[in-house]
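Q: Two folds, back to back.
A: First:
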Amino acid sequence: MMRRSLLASPAVFGLAGGVSAQAASLAIHTAGQGSPFVTYGQAIAALLGRNGVTATVEASTGSLQNLTAVEDNPNALGTAFLGSAWDAVQGTPAAGGRKHVNVRALWPMYETSFQIAALTTSGLTQFSQLNGKRVGAGPARGPAETFLVAAAEAAGLRIEIVSGSPAEMSEGLLGGRMDALWQGAIVPIPSILAALARAPGVVFGPGAEVVGRVTQRLPMLAPTTLPPGTYPGQTAPIESFAAWNFIVANRALPEAVAYAITRAVLSVGNPARDIGAVAAASTSANAVHNRVLPFHPGVLRFYREAGVPLAAPVD
């Protein structure tokens, strides 16, 4: 089968009701095996492919690496947690001290909420018991680790952080290489479900008091409550914090391309059905949750047409 490359020879493609634009081959930077970022990126690449756009899915360590890839490449898209985007825009140590000035928001993905899982045999059932414990926190210096450190500091805990991909985290918990697993993703978190499917466990959050301290310090986060039944065997609400994830692009991505691909994604009849379950929250209305990144100029037109009032910074 011959694969046509749009990068070598820009072509005109039709998207979402006849909107046309010139497109280059796009690379969607996601995360490691087991992350919903990968599932989401694959679903978007498939949707764009059905609309004549060549898009490949690239593995990464997560949001911060994706933001840097987008910063440096006009043909890159990235899955990005807004907490990490804030670090990138500000040039904090978590982002390597580099201010990312070219990253722009395209459309909303889903809300990331943070929870802890422990095996029943550990006896751990609440955040305060993590003092002195080994806690898996995903990729090193990633958003999960950053917010775990913030929560531990707010609670006055000293913990030992274990790093790795989401899949490695599940295996590490089951293999006894860590006492608890802290993850942030779409709820219910796939890596936690994967672990609970193989051994009985409990899921809990930092608790309302710690959540209040963390969200006061980190304004990109907001309190969230998970109702009973979110996870197998969960009988009480889980108090935690969350923030949104967005697809981001370089501001040099042509405006017509940014408009066309955003319209293709946000104009489907039912995103959970037409894109995938992981994209259920990818709707125009949820664009208001971005208060960190400027939107790409090409998508401002789409949101104006959709009647969505945006609260992001002005470019």
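A: Second:
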Amino acid sequence: MHDGHDPDIEAAEAVPRKRRKGIYILPNLFTLAGLFGGFYAIVMAMNGRFDQAAIGVFAAMVLDSLDGRVARMTNTQSAFGEQMDSLADMVSFGAAPALIAYVWALTSLGRWGWIAAFVYCACAALRLARFNVNTAVVDKRFFQGLPSPAAAALVAGFIWLMTEAGVRGEEVRWLMFALTLYSGLTMVTNVPFYSFKDVSLKRSVPFAVIVLIALGIAVINIDPPTVMFGLFVIYGLSGYVLYGWRKAKGQQTSVISTSTDEPDERGLHK
């Protein structure tokens, strides 16, 4: 007697439907918004609006810090998202700061100006490529070399501060030259910089921490260019202080081991 169940239909229903490949919209929206920040910064620099250009870079930096956290919190990490993030970073923190610095001050130095801008841009590309092939991170609390958003913040922050003070680029062109080279070359060093990756947004914190965050926001609002640039100068020097301290104590200064597919770099990580 037939009981109304067709075994062939049941077997077909038991096979899970193949999931169509797609792209996670939420984290990639943040990445695209960050890319727009970098593009906006370049356009503003071409129009001579250097304060707006600097704000575009800082906005891209905030959005870049969010896309990875959003992807992890919503469990939407993907290989596509990683590649998209790297390409957006190259525009926002590699090409944009180099071009803004060149148009604002370095153009008056002739060939030395574009050499400094290119060195920064090339170092940003090398920094991002090296970050992508670093497979076994020894200590996730630290970056190897100055992260590209912080390097961009140093360059853009200085331009923002000087623009607000009414100082023209030609007046501080050699200072801009030195800062551009420092930011670029520090990205490709083995100096460890604190990554803040051990700060969890999901963990509960004491009430005092929220009060301190509110005070921090208030202090930044007093004079955003000065405070932001000051904070990134401290951060930009902190790696060398930590490097010296580790060397003095005889500790390992490298925080990563590289991909086995890449040329042997063990001699660089002493």
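Q: And?
A: The longest strand covers residues 134-137.
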